[in-house]
User: Which sequence fits this backbone?
């Protein structure tokens, strides 16, 4: 168990209680404005329900607990429940599936769309786009796909693999903001991802690339190397603007697979004027909201220099 005092320093007060499955968590988040929001100590009356979440960051592996225990005290005594901490280590070395500077639009935290997704395959997904000098993803008429900096950019394989699933020929959404009719998606659920490619890697894990432009660059059964072009970034399927949706999953079917935490190496991320390089041997999740670039940019600081003293990520 994690030392109580240390855990207390790592936890932040949150306005929501722990529920175990992603579907319930997504529902609770969407309806959060209807819930009582106790902060710190709070008394719950008979018949009332409180839902809480807690999020904390651990920088040193030695701090990782094997379980968390939640105790609720009430007039008649107390009740405790222990939750095992699950860890996952990906077996596929991943690189950024793009070239040049991109922005991580969203990841999969509780307050992000993927964190609320009903599809388990999207539990750890990322959305990538290209931001211009003013921080906008478009320049000009935002209703047109061509106005978006990411539109038409090459989408690359994140690792060596075999193409096991493709969907092509789906039209792009234009004007931007228009999405396919719900009835059409119900008839063909896979079309939610628009034009897409799924790769199977030697580890048995799969990567999926959604919302591509019509006219993919690969076919089913084809073997590809990391960095090979799969297609072009587009705005097909259930997409609000041209961007790349990327996810790691345990099977080939995006509708039935379970999402897996993805970590990437050999890229540079920017915190304002500070550039940090993430080496291949020290992969990490993508940082939501920051700019990322494949490879090591000139002047970038090795992230290992910042984490070595504290024991690494």
Assistant:
């Amino acid at each position: 168990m994690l030392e109580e005092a240390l855990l207390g320093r790592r936890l932040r007060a949150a306005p929501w209680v722990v529920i175990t499955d992603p579907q319930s968590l997504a529902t609770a988040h969407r309806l959060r404005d209807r819930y009582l929001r106790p902060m710190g100590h709070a008394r719950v009356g008979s018949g009332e329900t409180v839902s809480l979440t807690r999020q904390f960051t651990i920088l040193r592996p030695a701090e990782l607990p094997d379980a968390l225990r939640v105790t609720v005290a009430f007039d008649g005594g107390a009740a405790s429940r222990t939750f095992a901490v699950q860890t996952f280590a990906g077996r596929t070395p991943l690189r950024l599936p793009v070239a040049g500077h991109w922005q991580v639009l969203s990841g999969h935290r509780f307050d992000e769309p993927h964190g609320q997704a009903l599809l388990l395959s999207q539990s750890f997904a990322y959305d990538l786009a290209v931001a211009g000098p003013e921080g906008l993803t478009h320049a000009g008429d935002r209703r047109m796909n061509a106005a978006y900096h990411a539109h038409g950019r090459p989408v690359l394989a994140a690792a060596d693999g075999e193409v096991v699933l493709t969907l092509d020929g789906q039209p792009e959404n234009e004007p931007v903001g228009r999405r396919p009719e719900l009835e059409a998606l119900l008839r063909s659920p896979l079309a939610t991802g628009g034009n897409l490619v799924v790769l199977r890697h030697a580890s048995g894990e799969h990567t999926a690339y959604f919302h591509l432009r019509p006219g993919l660059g690969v076919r089913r059964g084809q073997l590809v190397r990391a960095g090979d072009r799969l297609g072009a970034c587009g705005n097909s399927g259930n997409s609000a603007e041209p961007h790349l949706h990327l996810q790691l999953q345990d099977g080939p079917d995006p509708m039935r697979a379970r999402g897996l935490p993805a970590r990437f190496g050999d890229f540079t991320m920017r915190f304002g004027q500070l550039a940090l390089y993430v080496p291949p041997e020290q992969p990490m999740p993508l940082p939501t909201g920051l700019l990322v670039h494949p490879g090591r940019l000139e002047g970038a600081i090795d992230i290992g220099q910042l984490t070595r003293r504290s024991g690494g990520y």
Residues 22-30 form the longest helix (9 residues). Confidence is low (pLDDT under 50) at residues 6-23, 309-313. Residues 119 and 281 are 31 Å apart (CA to CA). Helices lie at 4-10, 22-30, 182-187, 304-307.
